[in-house]
């Protein structure tokens, strides 16, 4: 199988407590595609300007990402600039955002793209997400969408139309709360699921993710790294690992969703180890396996053996 993604491709100017860089390859579709490409073929829909570097196109091609849907338009590539707090690397301020060539982007999908079974609407204008979704020939097996506060505040109605049409919603935990206007995360996720999605993935930065369904919850931790260089793209890389695994296996069971959440966390953990896609774009299978096994170690514990009981003392002294 394979996965189709629409989202941003652009240049980021980033400052974190330990590193900084200007015009680094970034964008939601970029991180997503590179992460997903380790598991499954990826086809990308996005636009770049005439200042987009040949090296960056080559990097996407080297991951065998189908970039036939990556339009090259006249004008400047999307730019985003952000600064991470020195006290808490989970906190970032957007300093500047320039949509540039995205302002007039109106893609037409090829017949093959319209028939994809797995679709990811990465963080971008919800109207563009709807424009892509509306061109699908039939309902894909799995559609997921990501968004950020920028769109919750600026395009709430279109975003609601997106949410009503997808199976899985990805948001930061604060965004889940702010979209649902409900301070309790579980209730807020339920309010979103009541609009249609089967699952909400609440991203919690260095605390990992919560995968919430109507009747169950699963927590995947973030990998405890000693050195986080740049958190940019962690969420998109998570989504790439998550969707890439599901698309490749075609397994949409609860168990597969849980493993996909761990494989997403694996990709997120690599993404933050260096600026831009530097670490994410150079993974080996051995690195993947060893990080995956480290996650197994991080999350496994002994349940009760047959006949075994937990220690328990009644407060009234009986039993
Ligand atoms: P993440 O850290 O996973 O939230 O993703 C960061 C990426 O999202 C950066 O590489 C940015 O270029 C991109 N980005 C930031 N704001 C927006 C936006 N409003 N629309 C689309 N992409 C964005």
Quick one: biggest sheet? Answer: 9 strands, mixed
Write the H/E string, N to C: EEEHEHEEEHEHEHHEHHEEEHHH
For the record, what CATH class applies? Alpha Beta
Q: Which hetero compounds are present in the coordinates?
A: adenosine monophosphate
Fraction of residues in H or I helices: 25-40%
Mean pLDDT: 97
Any guess at the CATH architecture? 3-Layer(aba) Sandwich
The CATH topology is given as UDP-N-acetylmuramoyl-L-alanine:D-glutamate ligase
CATH homologous superfamily (4th level) name: Ribokinase
| Strand order of the biggest β-sheet | 5-4-1-8-9-10-11-12-13
What Rg, in angstroms, do the CA atoms define? Answer: 20 Å
The counted number of beta strands is 13
Task: Output the number of helix runs.
Answer: 11
Query: Beta fraction of the residues?
Result: 15-25%
* Assembly state (oligomeric): single chain
The low-confidence runs, each spanning 5 or more residues with pLDDT under 50, are none
């Amino acid at each position: 199988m394979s996965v189709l993604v629409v989202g941003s491709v652009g240049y980021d100017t980033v400052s974190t407590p330990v590193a900084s860089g200007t015009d680094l390859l970034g964008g939601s579709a970029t991180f997503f595609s590179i992460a997903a490409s380790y598991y499954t073929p990826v086809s990308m829909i996005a636009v770049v300007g005439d200042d987009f570097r040949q090296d960056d196109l080559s990097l996407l091609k080297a991951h065998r990402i189908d970039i036939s849907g990556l339009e090259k338009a006249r004008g400047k590539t999307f730019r985003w600039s952000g600064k991470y707090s020195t006290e808490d690397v989970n906190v970032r301020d957007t300093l500047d955002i320039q949509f540039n060539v995205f302002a007039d982007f109106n893609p037409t999908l090829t017949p093959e793209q319209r028939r994809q079974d797995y679709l990811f609407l990465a963080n971008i204008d919800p109207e563009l997400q709807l424009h892509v979704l509306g061109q699908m020939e039939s309902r894909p097996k799995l559609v997921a969408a990501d968004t950020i506060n920028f769109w919750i505040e600026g395009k709430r109605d279109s975003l609601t139309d997106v949410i009503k049409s997808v199976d899985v919603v990805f948001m930061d935990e604060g965004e889940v709360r702010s979209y649902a206007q409900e301070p309790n995360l579980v209730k807020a996720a339920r309010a979103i699921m009541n609009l249609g999605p089967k699952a909400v993935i609440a991203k919690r930065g260095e605390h990992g993710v919560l995968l919430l369904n109507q009747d169950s919850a699963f927590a995947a931790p973030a990998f405890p790294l000693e050195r986080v260089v740049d958190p940019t793209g962690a969420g998109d890389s998570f989504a790439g690992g998550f969707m890439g695994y599901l698309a490749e296996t075609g397994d949409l069971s609860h168990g597969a969703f849980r493993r996909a959440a761990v494989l997403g966390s694996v990709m997120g953990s690599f993404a933050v180890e260096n600026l831009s896609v530097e670490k994410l774009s150079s993974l080996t299978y051995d690195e993947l396996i060893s990080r995956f096994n480290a996650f197994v170690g991080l999350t496994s514990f002994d349940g009760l053996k047959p006949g075994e009981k937990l220690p328990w003392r009644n407060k009234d002294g009986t039993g």
